Amino acid sequence: MLGAKKDFEGVLLVDKPTEHTSHDVVARLRGKLKMKRIGHAGTLDPSATGLLVMLVGKATRMSQYLMSAEKEYTGTITLGQVTNTQDADGEVLETRPVPELSEAEILAAMQSFKGDQYQTPPMFSAIKIDGVPLYKSARKGEDIEREPRFIRVMQYELKRWESPEVDFLVRSSKGTYVRTLAHDLGQKLGCGGHLKSLRRTASGDLRVEQSTTLEDLLAMPLTELEKRLLPVHQVAPRIAL
C-alpha cells in the first residue's frame, strides 16, 4: 500500500560518540526509522564511546539476554586526582603526588581486582533509591547508603603506563562500574585516581569493529541502514521471539 509504514527489526550495532547519552542515540534512531520500538542493551555514560547494542522492533524482547552479556572496555585512568563522579566530568576533591610506580606494581594492583566481588555503586549513577536517582541526591551533596552489588572481573590488564596515566583493558560482568574500578585502583596505589576516558569494545560476542558510527547511520538511506540490522537468530539463536 502506498505510504505504508515499514517496521524494521533486528540488532543494530552503533559506535556511540562522546557527549551523547544512550537515550540520545535511541531518540535519534527513532526519528530516523520513524518507529518507537527501539531500545538498547546496556547504558554507556555520556562521555564514553564505543559499542552500543541497539534493539529494533521485536528484537527489544531480547533485551535481558543481551544486557547480561560480559562487557569489554579500554580506557585511561589519571592517577593523582580523585573526583566526586570518579571520572573526568566531576569536581576534583583531592590531589595527591603520584609515586614512582613500576609497571609490575600497577599490574599487581590491577590483578587484585580480578574475580568475584561486591562493588558499591557510585553516588553519581542512575540507580534509584526510594524512587530517586542517586545522581540527583549527589547533586544536593547527599551521600545515600548503597547496597553493594555482585560483579565479576575476568580481565584487568595494563596496556600503557606513562605517569600519571594508565591505559587498561577490562572484561567484566554486567553492572560493573568501570569508573569505580579506576577510583579503587587509585586508592590501592595510594595516590587516588579517576577514569579519564572509556570505550566499550565488546558486548558478549559482538564487537565494536562490527558497528557503524551514529553519524553514518543517520546519513545513510533507510535501505542501506536496514542491511546493517543483524537478524535476531544470528545474535541470540536460542531466543525465540
TrEMBL record:
Any GO BP: mRNA pseudouridine synthesis
Entry annotated with the keyword tRNA processing: yes
Broad enzyme group: isomerase
Every Pseudouridine synthase II N-terminal domain range: 31-178
InterPro entries the UniProt entry points to: PsdUridine_synth_cat_dom_sf (IPR020103), PsdUridine_synth_N (IPR002501), tRNA_psdUridine_synth_TruB (IPR014780), TruB_C (IPR032819)
PANTHER family the record matches: PSEUDOURIDYLATE SYNTHASE TRUB1 (PTHR13767:SF2), TRNA-PSEUDOURIDINE SYNTHASE (PTHR13767)
Family listed: Belongs to the pseudouridine synthase TruB family. Type 1 subfamily.
Protein known as: tRNA pseudouridine synthase B
